[in-house]
Amino acid sequence: MKLDRFYPIFDSPEWLERTLPLGVKLVQLRIKDRPEDEVRPMVAQAQALCRHHGAVLVVNDHWRLAIEHGCDWVHLGQEDLDEADLPAIRRAGINVGISTHDHAELDRALSLGPDYVALGPVYPTILKQMKWQQQGLARVTEWKRLIGDLPLVAIGGMSVARAAGAFQAGADIVSAVTDITLNTDPEARVRDWIEVTR
């Protein structure tokens, strides 16, 4: 299944309610530091919204809930890989995207047969404190060469203006977070994203 080239990440179903009607077709629900019982209804709501709008939902980290609600995708960070039951995820028919930041992490990800690989932060990001410096577009090109036909997601400090450069460097998909959520007009920003990625 071919994934859309625009991949926003949100921390609540409310954001999906706002952006899916605008034409978002691939979206990640990323909820950190909340107990599973609180996240469960949010995953259920997000999955229902995505089904209604014909969009693909990617559940960050909460793979048990993804299985429970019949989701098609989970995204796992390197720390999540330590805890996740990949055979169970695969038995449920769920696709897996994996975050990478250096060659060791890429080797580990590729050994697990991911359905996409994410590289970040391509640019400096304010989303979370990271031990990694910005990767830059040259690293995007290198990663694409190393992973071949696997979809490559560029994440970290991405903006509408930077999207074209990421695609030219080899990214198949560009992911955005704060460029939308901190924008004074998030809906207009989403429309801009859709325009530059399709």
TrEMBL record:
Its EC number is 2.5.1.3. It comes from the Bacteria. Pathway: Cofactor biosynthesis; thiamine diphosphate biosynthesis; thiamine phosphate from 4-amino-2-methyl-5-diphosphomethylpyrimidine and 4-methyl-5-(2-phosphoethyl)-thiazole: step 1/1. Keywords: Magnesium, Metal-binding, Thiamine biosynthesis, Transferase. Residues 12-180 form the Thiamine phosphate synthase/TenI domain. InterPro entries: Aldolase_TIM (IPR013785), ThiamineP_synth_sf (IPR036206), ThiamineP_synth_TenI (IPR022998), TMP_synthase (IPR034291). Its cofactor is Mg(2+). It catalyses: 2-(2-carboxy-4-methylthiazol-5-yl)ethyl phosphate + 4-amino-2-methyl-5-(diphosphooxymethyl)pyrimidine + 2 H(+) = thiamine phosphate + CO2 + diphosphate; 2-[(2R,5Z)-2-carboxy-4-methylthiazol-5(2H)-ylidene]ethyl phosphate + 4-amino-2-methyl-5-(diphosphooxymethyl)pyrimidine + 2 H(+) = thiamine phosphate + CO2 + diphosphate; 4-methyl-5-(2-phosphooxyethyl)-thiazole + 4-amino-2-methyl-5-(diphosphooxymethyl)pyrimidine + H(+) = thiamine phosphate + diphosphate. One of its GO terms (molecular function) is thiamine-phosphate diphosphorylase activity. It is an enzyme of class 2 (transferase). Belongs to the thiamine-phosphate synthase family. This is Thiamine-phosphate synthase. It comes from Pseudosulfitobacter koreensis. The lineage of its organism: Bacteria, Pseudomonadati, Pseudomonadota, Alphaproteobacteria, Rhodobacterales.
